[in-house]
Amino acid sequence: MNPYENPDQPPPESGPGVGLGPSGFQTAEELDAAGLTRDMDMGGIVVTLLRREDMLMLEFRFRDLLRTGLGAQQRLVTKSATQPGFLHVRMPPQATLEEATPSGSPSTAVKQAWFAALSDLSFRVPPGASIPFTAAGLLNWAGLATDSARLECVWGLGLTPETPAQVVWLHATEPVTGPTGAVGIWHTRLALPPAASGPPGTPSRLPVPVKPAEVVNDTEGFMSSLSAGDRRAIGASMARRPALAQDLTFSPLGANVDLTGNWLGLASTTVIMYRHESVGGRDSTVNVLKRGYLLPFGFPALITTQTERRLDHGLVRTSVLTVLQPDVTYQDVAALPNGRRGFPFVRVRLNGPLSADVIDATDPLTDVGFWVRGPGAADGRLRFSLTAEDLRGHPVAFTAPLVFVNGDRAHGDLSAALAVFNTQAEKTDLPAAGRLELAPATGADPESTTVDVAVLRIGAVRSSASQADLEKAGRLAALPELLSVDARIPSLDSVAERGATGDDGAARKDDAAREDDAARAAVHTLLLDKTYVQHGLTASRQVYAQLKTPVLVAPPVTASGGIAKLDLKVTGLSSATGLIGGDLVKFKSGTFDPAAFFTPPPDPPASGPPLPCPTRLLGFVDLTKLVPSVSMPPGGAGDGTDVPRMVTKVLRQQDKPPHAVETTLTWHPKLTPTREGPFKTTADTALDLRCVGLMNLDGSGPPVTEVRGELSRFTLSFADVLDVEFQRIAFTSKSGTTTSLDVKVGKVGFSGQLNFLDELRQYLPSIANGPRINVDSDGIDVGYTLAVPSVAMGVFLLQNLALSASVRLPFNGDPVEATFAVSSREHPFLATVSLFGGGGFLALTVNTSEVVRLEGQVEFGAAVALSLGVASGSVSVTAGVYVRLDKKGSSITGFLRAYGELDILGIVNISVEFFLGLKFQPPKTLYGYASVTVRVRVAFFSESVTMKLERSFSGGNDPSFAQAFPTAQPWRDRCAAFAPME
């Protein structure tokens, strides 16, 4: 057995271990034998130099060089007497990339590590020169000029001397033994040649200028001394101004590095200061100072990153962000586009943190920068506290994550990065508080476009300034843009405030009230209108914002004076008219179309009664068909004449915060002369709506609302039987006071099948006396009653006859109802002829589209009385029919009543009453009720006994054919039972 292969025996002692291992040959002797007969071209041959004593390990490659001679006389010479040759030297990895941990959470766990690539040197061999082909000869390259170098003594960052031919390499060709006998590790140091003023042969101690030869773009996947972005930025800065290497020493165990970069004063650079120290290929201290801007607002900032080696934790990294200028305005080079309409702030201030420990480069934004990460957020992104001011000085406080844009990319084209940033910004809610003027106010109220902000979404747009101007001014090539805002709109809030009460103005305390409270507290997402942003308010007809999701506003009819119900889907906001409903494109084109502005009527159902129109007058008239379309001037229609105006006004005392918000709804359009169902208008018909609501912001009192609605000079035709001409219906209410109603009726006339009653108009009260008016919490009743005096002619007597007609206007928006009656249930008419008589009543209630209720009763009978002095008695028999028909159902009741009474000297009284009633209820139920009551009175004592009997009879439904004949056989048997036809 070979002793080298026996693990139990140590290898024998030997002399100095120097080996030349040529590629393609097993031993150096084979290389010698191959060159006995001729000079050998060393191209393609790799020679590995290994020396055990000082751990030397190098690879040599050759170009345009020949090996000549034998044994100790072997030399390398150039192939051409006129062309140089090249000696290439490759060193083992000189740097190690080690995993670092944040300073806030240092770890003693095992860290990841990657080795650097090999470092390469290339030396020029002058024509005709020769090099001994020995270990000492190959190592003695100090006399050769350096042609090129790629020195990866910093992982991922290949360096080369600024002027390779003007540097020298300092190292020993033989092992160096110290006084104690220890052999030093072989190493070589890069230096400048001896200065002319220095001692002869002594290398200069000045730092060597180096520049990047290659920057590796690999992403290591863990935190280290330098991120991939840091290496790229350092390489870019080095390319413009070389770094200074105070020490670059290479050895088989790794390099010692003392490298400094100072790029202060260079424009468009990210890294402005850099210091790197390492020993044996392992970093000990790394400092990087990066310059950039915080997107989207453009705050200049620095990030100082320090990585140091600690005894127990390895590499620990600390990154500190410092904001250099926490207050920015947008003017001159940084002027906002479109007259700042896309971002209604003039100043943004960063309140804090102005200096904070951050984690950088782990959340990139394309290749231009990264989201600043730190504690305090679920997604890891650091939240900054900011305050922005609009043109009126309103402060809006909010928090936002920001992006650090590297200085070398800050002034160039950021289009791709801004597209990615805006995509994320649209989904990032920035909690905010304050009041913001979204557009310049053009109405009487200077703050008509001001909203209460709850959430901001801020993106960024490219700056139109040139790169040179931006570099000179030190501004970012991007400007902030308001993508959307969640806000409480005072005019919508006031509508919800009025909706929190019932139609009678009384506060509700049920679940609906809580839902209304939630509606008032809700915010709405607003987008700045693109036409306004690009061209201004005149081009957009004063529309400055649109709602991302339209909001259905359906205030109670009391909010418009009990006259009209205005339902609309709010889609936008106008500085002139406030809330805009329906089709914004049509509105901005300059046309106000009520059918497009208000909520349109629903499609008629396939069956059943038609659905109510959401926007209606007097509860049943489609208002959108009565108001004509109008053209609006470029300045908008802001006086409430043609277009409904719902705006807010902030009330404040001088130099004090706002104390109240006043919301005003006004609309007084001209109505088209037409007939819409029972509603008739003329050229003089007018509608006037006004509602003023006051909400106190200081809690000094409850909301106060004053409402007035008036509709004048119109006619209502009820079921084509009654025409009522109204001079005016005016409704006024104010919080804390009773409702005031002013109704003036002109001419009342019967028509159609009741035209004969028109002859009785002269008996109706005159207009001067006015109609009968009742006002309650549900609506108003206006009616006439004609009481006919009793008429006696011989044995005929007619009494209690009254004819009445009334109109009811509900406050909840239901259709107007009309009731026609002959007498009433409480006071039926009576007609008698001798001992025969009868009576009854009839009432009919209709609205504009259907019969609401029909009720009537007719009874008849006979009565006779007999008196004999000491005794008297009477007998009566009556029968009748009662009919009721309404939305709940119908019923018919027939009854028979017999009554007899005997009285003796007023002391004894005996009476007997018999009652029998039959009531039919659909579909097939007959209900019967019978009672007999006997009452006896003697002097002061009386007693009565009643016997009752109730029965109901229901008829079942007829069986269907399938139920009667479940199979075919029963049907055949039935047919066979009948004789055949002949």
How would you describe the overall organization of this protein?
This protein has 982 residues and is mainly beta. 9% of the residues lie in helices and 48% in strands. It has 12 helices and 64 strands. A hairpin with a 2-residue loop joins strand 46 and strand 47 (679-696). The longest helix is centred in the first third of the chain and has 13 residues, at 228-240. The N and C termini lie far apart (130 Å).
Strand segment tally: 64
Poorly predicted spans: 1-17, 497-520, 764-770
The Cα radius of gyration reads 52 Å
> What's the rounded overall pLDDT mean?
81
Give the proportion of residues in helices: under 10%
Sheet with the most strands, sense and barrel status: 21 strands, mixed
Taken from the alpha-carbon principal axes, the silhouette is elongated
Secondary structure class reads mainly beta
Strand percentage lies at over 45%
Number of helices: 12
Distance between the termini: 130 Å
Short structural summary:
By secondary structure, the protein is mainly beta. The protein contains twelve helices and 64 strands.
Salient structural properties:
21-stranded mixed β-sheet; 982 residues; 14-stranded antiparallel β-sheet; elongated; 12 helices
Write the layout of secondary structure elements.
Layout: E1 18-22, H1 28-34, E2 40-41, E3 47-51, E4 56-63, E5 65-68, E6 75-78, E7 85-91, E8 96-98, E9 101-102, E10 113-115, E11 119-125, E12 130-132, H2 135-139, E13 145-154, E14 157-161, E15 168-170, E16 188-191, E17 208-215, H3 228-240, E18 243-250, E19 256-262, E20 271-279, E21 282-295, E22 299-310, E23 314-323, E24 327-329, E25 345-352, E26 355-357, E27 364-365, E28 369-371, E29 383-390, E30 395-401, E31 403-406, H4 415-425, E32 430-437, E33 450-462, H5 467-473, E34 478-488, H6 490-499, H7 511-521, E35 524-528, H8 530-535, E36 543-553, E37 564-565, E38 568-574, E39 578-581, H9 584-588, E40 591-592, H10 594-597, E41 616-617, E42 621-622, E43 630-631, E44 645-652, E45 658-667, E46 675-676, E47 679-696, E48 704-718, E49 722-734, E50 740-750, E51 772-775, E52 779-788, E53 791-793, E54 796-799, E55 801-810, E56 817-822, E57 829-833, E58 836-847, E59 851-867, E60 871-886, E61 889-904, E62 908-921, E63 925-938, E64 941-954, H11 961-964, H12 968-976
Parallel strand pairs: 9-23
Antiparallel strand pairs: 1-3, 2-5, 3-4, 4-7, 5-6, 6-12, 7-11, 8-10, 11-13, 13-14, 14-17, 15-16, 16-18, 17-18, 18-19, 19-20, 20-21, 21-22, 21-31, 22-23, 23-26, 24-25, 25-29, 27-28, 28-31, 29-30, 30-32, 32-33, 33-34, 34-35, 35-36, 36-38, 37-41, 38-39, 40-43, 41-42, 44-45, 45-47, 46-47, 47-48, ...
Helix pairs in contact: 6-7
